[in-house]
């Protein structure tokens, strides 16, 4: 679950400046909450709860960043990120999970992929900092 917070108190925070971000999580509450938080901060955001649907739709959206859960029933977030990276090579990826470890990204890393991992529950301010770091 994503922690809630008053984000206006974070003086370091910059807005999304119309960056296109896709959020993918099989838990609708998380997908929609993250999308709402990002839209409030100025990101152009689309959320999906089915990774197979996202795989079909995301390339047309041409996001700057994809934020995806790691553990999903139809397709893992790691596999999804690897497939999307081939379709959207300029896109950056932030994977998040309550159970995944950095070692879970080892296979992807050995195959030349560079994904960041954020642990759930993630505070929204931490998520926003990760997004800024990915787009810096």
| Reported CATH architecture | 3-Layer(aba) Sandwich
CA(first)-CA(last) distance:
27 Å
Please tally the helical runs, counting DSSP H or I stretches of 4 or more residues.
5
- Please tell me the overall pLDDT: 83
Helix content: 25-40%
For the report, how would you describe the main beta sheet? 5 strands, parallel
What is the count of β-strands? 5
Low-pLDDT windows of residues: 1-15
Rounded to the nearest angstrom, the radius of gyration is 14 Å
Number of domains: 1
CATH hierarchy, class: Alpha Beta
Keywords: Phosphoprotein
Modified residues (4-aspartylphosphate): 69
InterPro entries: Bact_response_regulator, CheY-like_superfamily, Sig_transdc_resp-reg_receiver
Organism: Edaphobacter modestus
Summarize the structure in words.
There is one protein chain. This protein has about 140 residues and is of the alpha/beta class. It has a single domain (about 15-135), classed as Rossmann fold (3-Layer(aba) Sandwich), CATH 3.40.50. It contains 5 helices and 5 strands. The chain has helices at about 30-40, 50-60, 75-85, 105-110, 125-135, and strands at about 20-25, 45-50, 65-70, 90-95, 115-120. The chain has a 5-stranded parallel beta sheet, sandwiched between helices. Helix 2 (about 50-60) runs parallel beside helix 3 (about 75-85). The longest helix is centred in the first third of the chain and has 13 residues, at about 30-40. It is globular, with a radius of gyration of 14 Å. The model is unreliable at about 1-15 (pLDDT under 50). This is Response regulator receiver domain-containing protein. One of its GO terms (biological process) is phosphorelay signal transduction system. Keywords: Phosphoprotein. InterPro entries: Bact_response_regulator (IPR050595), CheY-like_superfamily (IPR011006), Sig_transdc_resp-reg_receiver (IPR001789). It comes from Edaphobacter modestus.
């Amino acid at each position: 679950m994503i922690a809630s917070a008053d984000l206006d108190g974070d003086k370091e925070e910059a807005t999304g400046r119309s960056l296109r971000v896709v959020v993918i999580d099989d838990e609708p509450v998380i997908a929609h909450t993250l999308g709402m938080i990002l839209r409030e901060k100025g990101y152009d955001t689309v959320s999906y709860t089915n990774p197979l649907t996202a795989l079909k739709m995301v390339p047309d959206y041409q996001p700057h960043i994809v934020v995806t859960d790691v553990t999903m029933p139809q397709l893992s977030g790691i596999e999804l990120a690897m497939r999307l990276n081939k379709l959207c090579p300029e896109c950056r990826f932030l994977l998040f999970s309550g159970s995944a470890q950095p070692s879970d990204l080892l296979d992807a890393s050995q195959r030349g992929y560079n994904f960041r991992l954020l642990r759930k529950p993630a505070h929204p301010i931490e998520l926003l900092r990760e997004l800024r770091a990915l787009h810096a």
